Amino acid sequence: MDNQQLLWWVIGVVVAIIIIVVVIVWAKRSRDRRQEAAHRAAEDLRGEADRQQGRTLAEEERAAAVRHDAEAAEEQARQLRVEAEERERTADSSRGALDARLREADRLDPEVRTDGDGRRVDGADPVSDAGPAGDAGPVSDAGPGRHAADTAGDDDARGPRS
């Protein structure tokens, strides 16, 4: 082998080494750029996740507040149902007392025919004759809520009014 061939071999090896180094450096830079891009994408996703977490926490707080309001409304509704039931019982009791009073008035009224329990024989309903909102019928000088029939016989049965 002469010197010129050896020189070309050395130049070929050096060129090959340079090409290999260039390829390795290019591949490393390419890999670094891909990793940097992946890192940026991951950071972007983390940032979006942080913003989403803030929105999610706010939505959870709103949901808890609405749930609390709903529970309070349910409790209020329960209390109102209890109050309504109590008022219905009171109204039923008042209706019973009113019916009894009207039967007694009918029993005392000589113009109204009644059976032994004070119920009208003609089938008329004294409660519906009482007027709106439980008004006990026409008001006489006997006072508010009293039938003129309620006072019929006051002078006789209970003595004079004062």
What tags apply to this protein structure?
disordered C terminus, mainly alpha, 3 helices, single chain, 162 residues
Explain what the structure shows.
- The chain has helices spanning 3-108, 148-151, 154-158.
- It is mainly alpha-helical and 162 residues long.
- Helix content is 71%, strand content 0%.
- The protein is rod-shaped.
- The model is unreliable at 131-162 (pLDDT under 50).
What is this structure's SSE topology?
Elements: H1 3-108, H2 148-151, H3 154-158
From the N-terminal CA to the C-terminal CA, the straight-line distance is: 155 Å
**Topology, number of strands:** 0
Category from helices, strands and their pairing: mainly alpha
Radius of gyration computed on alpha carbons? 51 Å
Largest sheet: none
Characterize the overall form.
rod-shaped
Specify the helix fraction band: over 70%
Low-confidence stretches: 131-162
Question: Helical element count?
Answer: 3
Percent strand equals under 5%
From N to C, what is the helix and strand string? HHH
* Mean of pLDDT: 81
Task: Give a quick precis of the structure.
The protein is an all-alpha fold and 162 residues long.
